[in-house]
């Protein structure tokens, strides 16, 4: 059986198990609309009735309006307009630099880690009843989904993720306009990227300044953190195509200094913009940044 | 103890050392293309790109060592002047080793071909004593004292007293060596002749009569004598196959001048005063064939009627063995022999072992799982 026919597992079992200890908490949204922790576990029957919809295969039986069935002898699903205070926006960078992986584990790219984190975030949002939306950022076309909840929405997200491939560069500002139209005033925005492109930092800054709560997760490869290259290499920037010949050992010290400085600068800029951030290196467990950002014990004080 | 090379040309193989150097160097020019998104923080270093640098130095070192060892092996390493000053005591066979008082440190050997150690059983059979003494002299280091223990009577001596370079201690003990060859039985002659050669056969019979030898006369059909008896075959035409076989199994035969025998290299066995050969001889199987070159006629071969013809005939048919027994006191080696050639010990077995070990190490280094990229 060729592996390409089996979609890779987005969330490994151990990571899924550890997700139970996490909860998405938007600091700015709390207490605003009076529903407490925005994880109101409304059971599909929304607070405000929106419409009836004919039953489709896959709908949960408990969503069927049995009284209406008694009257009309047909299955109808009661749909509600959920007034969830917070929608989770997952912005996944899908530019070409995200396709980079380590030589030691070439099949696991930065984008794969990003997809897994996206799925895990969606799982968290689903578990606490929040709406979630997904957008892939690349200049060849923004892929957007509307904010919604439910397992069907989650499955649609998984389908999108499986078909997603990294290409092109980070989108220019005009291309990001649809995001501004959709991201609500107090939504929680998680940006998954390598954060190498200044445009990414710019987007985060502007979103944060506009009142959205922005969380940055930076995904790095082991080679970028440790620069464990030895011997002759032709380094190529996947987005600009620029090339540089060099000997790994000779470049290491200088690179680590400059990269460390750049990282410190980035962290300072994010802190200044009020963007919480965490980092995932590809040799770490997938949920490392999630534990750091959303651990219940660590964020309880801020959440309540 | 001087290390040396017996074939320095073998060092030309050192040129092969360039091969692993090139192997380990060539890979430096390889540039593996790598995607690297954080390229903007990499800075091109202006460094010389052609500074020679080698991959996997331990493996390279072992490979060079292996080739150097091989080259030295081909150059035949040896240690010169390995002076072994251990005294040597050579005991002639026939003497009980226990009766010989000798230094405990000395190397005791039998004076026999191969010089076996004295612990081994005494060698049997004849030994050319004179030749062995000369060989032992050249094989023993100049500094080593040489003692030769011999019985009163030596057997296997040759015509010249050995000249040796060592000061040989010639120790004569009572005893005798086994006779090197059995005492020959008296000569017996069988004569087979056809009618055409009856005249010539008379000279043979006269000679045997003069020697007072027993002779067995008969025509060609008569049964052949035992192989200890010499056969004289006077008949025209080729030798019968039975006679050929009789000779090949160890008999000695004298055939007439008109007898046809198979052609083979021959040596003259008897020449007259002018040097003209009268009898030629050659070996056939284990036996000998002598062939008269002239007819048995006093006119063609005046030697027939010489007084010493009977003795010459007997000598042809059964040559007397050379004297080989000598009194040991008269056979003491003379000084003035050639000094022994400088002894050298061949070091190639040790180098072969080292090469095998280096090869194993090289294979282990080259095939271990931790290696990054196999060249």
How would you sum up this structure in a few lines?
The complex is a heterodimer of chains A (304) and B (375). Chain A has 304 residues and is of the alpha/beta class. Chain A contains 10 helices and 12 strands.
Could you explain how this protein is built, in words?
The complex is a heterodimer of chains A (304) and B (375). Chain A is α/β, with parallel strands linked by helices and 304 residues long. Chain A folds into 2 domains: 48-81, no CATH class; 84-298, Rossmann fold (3-Layer(aba) Sandwich), CATH 3.40.50. Chain A is built from 10 helices and 12 strands. In chain A, α6 (198-209) links the parallel β8 and β9. The radius of gyration of chain A is 21 Å and the shape is elongated. Chain B has 375 residues and is α/β, with parallel strands linked by helices. Chain B has helices at 18-26, 57-74, 129-139, 198-211, 241-248, 309-317, 348-367, and strands spanning 2-5, 32-35, 77-80, 88-91, 107-110, 146-155, 163-164, 168-176, 189-193, 215-218, 230-234, 237-238, 252-255, 259-260, 267-271, 277-284, 287-292, 325-327, 334-335, 344-346. In chain B, the strands form 5 sheets. In chain B, strands 10-9-11-13-17-16-15 form a 7-stranded mixed β-sheet, sandwiched between helices. In chain B, strands 4, 5, 6, 8 and 18 form a 5-stranded mixed β-sheet that branches. A 3-stranded antiparallel β-sheet of chain B has the order 1-3-20. Classes of the chains: A alpha/beta (304), B alpha/beta (375). Chains A and B meet through β10, β11 and α8 of A and β2 of B.
